[in-house]
């Protein structure tokens, strides 16, 4: 007779004792028995350990997580880290740093006021350790490193608020960052703590900003350790992100003075070691925050009555038509107005009488005028040539510089997403934007010349303006995908991305997406579409059966925080559980401790409707972050939250879960798969109608020639 479903057999061992195979009742915690015996107390009966509530079962493999909620281990470590013996203290802190990753242990240790003990050790105990540093330097570094590691791990669980820490603790952590020579592990943990303080508390941001300056962080970017460089950029980004609006421009000025851009370019982007994903993310965040400084000008309308702003337009006219201009005092007022109107028309403004009105549209507002002035002053020859060249053309073929600049600035802001918060999962930084202090303005200067070139290639008229802008956007977007290393390389690639090349690419893409519009073909498509949809559904469910590894926390620099979820082969149960590290291949079902029956699932929600997306964290409001979030709601108002590693996994899981609930699969990947499979099936059936035999196996790969000593005789 098989044992009840609630009874599991587990091997339990105690140090220096022979392991026992026990039968544990999952319904009645704290009870166990030897096979064939009556139930008795788990853990404590066999080895006479005393009160069972002070002990816990711990997994022997992998995660080393505790299974029950209470544990003597927490109180023991709480005592051991206060030992007067440095060796004992070091060993205890090492164990604490490892055990703190487990949330059950962390909760118990925090309940013993463990966080306060660690902060006191950092605040007051460090001086005593420093006295011993000369005679036992490695021990000091390890001691402090394990203390800070345990602190970081405990705080990552989100049990304790960051607002509870004293100024003395902040000063102490900041002092480790400000020192020129500090143990690498200590420096890493200290930078991580400062970043979390700044991001999680506005009050702590103020205190940290008083203790840390950009000048003190810069040297850490010049070291060879990419992890330290990454944490340093992360702290700079956090300070930038949390700074009040009025202080961000001031901070950007300080970063420019300290040559942050050139230091990052030479020590990180152009260093010999490859850039890891987390560093790429931090460089992307810095890029976004830097471009977001343009938002104020982008959303500022021009005041047509403001003389200082009008003078900028006068300067554009002066630079372009210097030889043609009369002095402002010569001639009648009517003559001067007529002359200005003529010149403003040549400059390509929509409003020839008062071009200031053109800059009242937001976006791009005053940012467009700033770009035009930069181009006129820093690329004067190209500016004058462009204006004069277009003013000498026939009216219908001239490229309006003013109108083009305004629309191009707006387009570049859209492409670079100026004003949007950085995404939590994006690594899309562009090295070329770190090669110049005025990278956006230089970017504009290259693109406005491209626009003028494309206008001529298309032989465009004013009616074709929107078509030209669409082609220019495509040229820019396709070139950016190659991630040019410099602005010169970007410019060079754009030269090859001519209008003719764009037409070739479009033609090639159209040929690869044949559209069968005849009535018999349309009817056949409608007939086989349900079969294809069922095939897609089975593929989605099979992928859910294989399972996916998801990140357990939002902290990207914690690669050991993962959980895995997969669907049972009979499609009736979701199995999930925590992992120590990202797995290589599938995780077996018996390694996943938790279950969710499909019959208990109520709905699948995505984006802002997810429980874990309703928090108002600064970085959680970005579009990309919301696009990867989904949750399964089940009975008793419970939920299982997911954050997909990428868009593909998001679509696979939301499709599969909706299929389990009997709902329609609506993701963009379903539509793409449907189009691809339908197209393939249609082609195969048409080939079959022509009686063309398709082989079951692919043709063999040609063998390598045995002799390479040959030439081709052109005669």
UniProtKB/TrEMBL annotation:
**Domain ELMO as annotated: residue spans:** 308-480
Protein name per UniProt:
Engulfment and cell motility 1 (ced-12 homolog, C. elegans)
Alphabetical list of PANTHER family matching this protein: ENGULFMENT AND CELL MOTILITY, ENGULFMENT AND CELL MOTILITY PROTEIN 1
Pfam families assigned: ELMO_ARM, ELMO_CED12, PH_12
Its GO CC terms are: guanyl-nucleotide exchange factor complex; plasma membrane
Instruction: Say which species the protein is native to.
Output: Gadus morhua (Atlantic cod)
Picking any one GO molecular function of the record gives: SH3 domain binding
Task: Tell me the function of this protein.
Answer: Involved in cytoskeletal rearrangements required for phagocytosis of apoptotic cells and cell motility. Acts in association with DOCK1 and CRK. Was initially proposed to be required in complex with DOCK1 to activate Rac Rho small GTPases. May enhance the guanine nucleotide exchange factor (GEF) activity of DOCK1.
What is one process in the GO biological process aspect for this record?
cell motility
The record's gene field reads elmo1
Record key words, sorted = Apoptosis, Phagocytosis, SH3-binding
